[in-house]
Amino acid sequence: MKNLFLLLTAIALFTFNSNAQITGSFTDEVLFNSQNRTLSCYVPLNYDSTANYQLMICLHGLGDNSNNYRNALINSLNWNTVFPNTIFICPDGGDDANSDFSTPVGDEAIIQKSIEYAEQNYKIDTNKVILQGFSLGGRSALKYGMDHPVQFYGLLLNTPAIQGLDDAMNLIPGVGMYFNYTNTPKVPIYITYGADDVVYQYTIDKIHDILKKNNAIVNVISVAGVGHTIPNSSFTSPCIPFFNNPTTALYDLDIFEIDLAERLCNPMITPQVYVRNLGSTPVTSFNLNYQLNSTNGSFNWTGNIGPYEYVLVTLPQLTAITGSQSLDVSIGTINTQFADSIITNNQLSKTFKIEDQGTAFPLSEGFDGNYDNWAFPKTGSLFEWYQDTQVFKTGTASIGSFNTALLFYSVGDVESFLSPVMDLTSVLNPKMSFDIAYNYHK
Asked: Which pLDDT does position 306 carry in this prediction?
């Protein structure tokens, strides 16, 4: 019996050592939920069993597979040189090719299984495990990373395919709290997306806003000229310095939003300004300078905001003028005496309009010329109203809204636009009519 035990031990050690010596691109399988699940791997050719390696778990997108994804990362994007001393494990999404790594329930545990596989066969720095994902794989990586934030050194998300505003806001019926935003301050998140990605740029902008308002350690990069794909290494490699040190300056305040309606009737306004601290030093006070037409002022805020925390500052009541104008806000001194180290993000303007008189009646609009009197509030949705130069009855354009039952959950969502203010007190039986053209799917 003792000899048999020694033989089994020797076989186990030989298996581990032989696996550990495999380098380059290769495929293996693990038993997961009573099925064999493919892991497509890459290990540096110069792997040294005495050194610790960074680990990156990479989740592919809809309809793809782990081999194709591994080959794209290593052979096309050269991530083996972009991220040196890194072992890559790409788990396959399974036989449900039209869903992500969160379907069926429990499927996301393949991420932990992949980490265990790497740790059993290679020498992994457990403090340097990065979770990466593209498209729906990026969505799954964001979910899993926020559910298990302390497990990862950072989340690298390339165009995470957030499925509309309802998905971003955890409002899809039956799904519940998909994204656990309360955990976002616990793990750095680095996101890239293509500025030409007509579907997902809206949802990523929205989730970026949500992340900032949950004190997330997040950096989002929009890449010009790129669609729904992973950009080149010049946009992805900076994730490592960001994970290493998300705060690169002592003092860096970021004004990221001015809360003020685009169309108002009352000239007395009370704007609110969102400011977050991207510096390494806690901020206990700062001056917020503002200008509205001929009015200049400064508001001194006091409190305490740590790195990557935000505060909502309410400015004093201001008097606007009739018509279009701009409120300009900027950061002054910080903690009584210090200047902002990075000035590119401490100024912001918001254009709005005061309409306190009605437009002449009757009103007719074709939306093909100057229609500045109409307001189209930005909701961050793919379905916002826009000027359509392909569809029109007269003139050269109309306004349209992209709408389809085949993309995103949008039941009950409303997209609105506002007409100019009209004085109907002298009009008997006012009526509104419009021409509409529609199709089922564009």
From this structure: 97
pTM over 0.85? The answer is yes
Residue 378, pLDDT > 80, answer no
Give the three-class secondary structure for 99.
Answer: coil
Picking from 273, 145, 264, 262, the residue whose alpha carbon sits closest to that of residue 211 is 145
Tell me phi and psi for residue 132, to 5 degrees.
Answer: -120, 150
Q: Measured between alpha carbons, how far is 405 from 436 in angstroms, rounded to an integer? A: 19
- Picking from 254, 210, 267, the residue whose alpha carbon sits closest to that of residue 343 is 254
Kindly calculate the radius of gyration of the chain based on its CA atoms and give it in whole angstroms.
27
Asked if residue 243 lies in contact with residue 153, where contact means CB atoms within 8 angstroms, the answer is yes
335: alpha, beta or left, given left = phi > 0 and alpha = psi -120 to 50? Answer: left
pLDDT higher than 90, residue 156: yes
Q: 69: Cβ–Cβ under 8 A, 6 or more apart, which residues? A: 40, 58, 60, 61, 90, 134, 137
How many whole angstroms separate alpha carbon 246 and alpha carbon 219? 9
Site of tokens 């329930």: 105
Q: Looking at residue 109, what is its pLDDT?
A: 94
pLDDT classification of 426: cutoffs 50, 70, 90 = confident
Phi, psi values for residue 391, rounded to 5°: -120, 125
- The dihedral built from the CA positions of residue 405, 407, 409 and 415, taken in this order, carries a sign that is negative
What the block records as the tokens of 363 is 């009103």
